[in-house]
Amino acid sequence: MKLMYFPGCTLKTTALNYEKSAIEVAKKMDIELIELNRWNCCGVVFNLAVDSAMHHVAAVRDLIRAQQMSREIGDNKLVTLCSMCFNTLKRVNELMKMDSEKLETINKFMDDEEDYECGIEVLHFLEVIRDIIGFEKIEKLTIKPLKNLKVAPYYGCTLIRPKGIGIDNPENPRILEDLIKALGAEVVEFPYKIKCCSAYDVVYDRKIAEERTREIRKAASRWGANIIVTTCPLCHYNLNLPVRAPEIPVVYFTELMAVSFGVDEILDPEVRKVIYSLMGEV
């Protein structure tokens, strides 16, 4: 199966491990992630101003790139890994479907591009795993169950909010829990799994991010977790800030999948060491 893939900026800079592990586990699921041609930054956040159209140009340009590539590969699904890219692209896509006036304005503005026809489906990689592959198949692909791992799933905000855009119940999501179980690890339920990590507060007031990180890590440790798993590069960055809190590693869900699927050689040596240490295999 060939699926279009939008990496976004962070996956090419500070979250290279996320991209590398995702591409590798996708291969194990017989999925080829084909990087979008000439993609650009999606804009990072969805602009809420009612009268704004220009703030959505970047995302629409990426959707046009996907529209062009979809004709080549015969599939309209655009897969993302970064939660913020997913949220921005999907919300802009849905807005263009609902607001014909904004769509016309943007199409006219980008007169050197073909018109966007709103035929692209934006998906997060987790949706592909749940809805196309299925967790039963994940269990069958697991050759190294993640024994001794007590995993706290951390969703953050943009993967599950707002309702109608997010990939799961925004109050009580279960998609990460179901994946963790399929990989043979123990799920640790903890009340901070949908609490904001402080996002871009870290840019202008690092103390806010540090305090929130401390709360989340303390909660995960208090509820019995020995590792936190996330889907968002910004959450991953904030949760790894050096603060006075329990030492608990934070990894991407695809890194756990790589170990479970037996392709852990592609992982960063330190990440691999941490996971195997917790499993008691170092």
Topology:
Blueprint: E1 2-6, H1 16-28, E2 32-35, H2 57-73, E3 77-80, H3 83-98, H4 100-109, E4 121-124, H5 125-133, H6 135-141, E5 150-153, H7 175-182, E6 186-187, H8 201-204, H9 206-222, E7 227-230, H10 233-239, E8 250-252, H11 253-260, H12 269-278
Helix pairs in contact: 1-11, 2-3
Keywords: Oxidoreductase
InterPro entries: Cys_rich_dom, HdrB/HdrD_reductase
Protein name: Heterodisulfide reductase, subunit B
What is the structure about, briefly put?
The protein is α/β, with parallel strands linked by helices and 282 residues long.
Can you offer a commentary on this structure?
InterPro entries: Cys_rich_dom, HdrB/HdrD_reductase. Pfam families: CCG (PF02754). Keywords: Oxidoreductase. This is Heterodisulfide reductase, subunit B. By secondary structure, the protein is an alpha/beta fold. It folds into two domains: 124 residues, Up-down Bundle (Glutathione S-transferase Yfyf (Class Pi), Chain A, domain 2), CATH 1.20.1050.140; 145 residues, Rossmann fold. Helix content is 45%, strand content 11%. The strands form two sheets. A four-stranded parallel β-sheet has the order 2-1-3-4, sandwiched between helices. Strands 6-5-7-8 form a four-stranded parallel β-sheet, with helices on both faces. It is globular and about 60 Å long. The model has no long low-confidence stretch (mean pLDDT 96).
